[in-house]
Task: structure prediction
Amino acid sequence: MAVIQKLPPVKCNIIEARSRLSERAVELNKAAGDIVTAATSTSTQQIAPASHRFSRAYEDFVETGLEAASAAAASGDSAVQSEVVSGLRGVSTVASRLLVATKALLVDPNASDAKNQLTAAARCRSDYHGHFH
Result:
């Protein structure tokens, strides 16, 4: 049984797809780091542009991840397909935590735990970045 019922059309082989996914992971990691930097600086003016860059990088990452899963399925490698899909789910969870922590910090910058939550979310993103790099 396929991991995902509907995947995008295959555009490249699995090696190319994984290489592109790794590149997108680097971009997503940088964008997440930009959010953390902006959120922990004294001025909050950079958070909106950093969040926008993160959103674009996340969208590109997911699209490329689905293409990699599609390429794995086309090559008959269900183990790689499962690995990619599992990784995408993990990254989605971490991305959500990062954005929730950023929002909490913006809502109440003086909250005692807000920066700790943001830092913890940032650590998790690094863990998942390594998964795709």
Notes: The longest helix spans residues 78-107. The chain has a mean pLDDT of 83. The helical segments are 14-40, 47-74, 78-107, 114-132. The chain has one domain: 14-132.
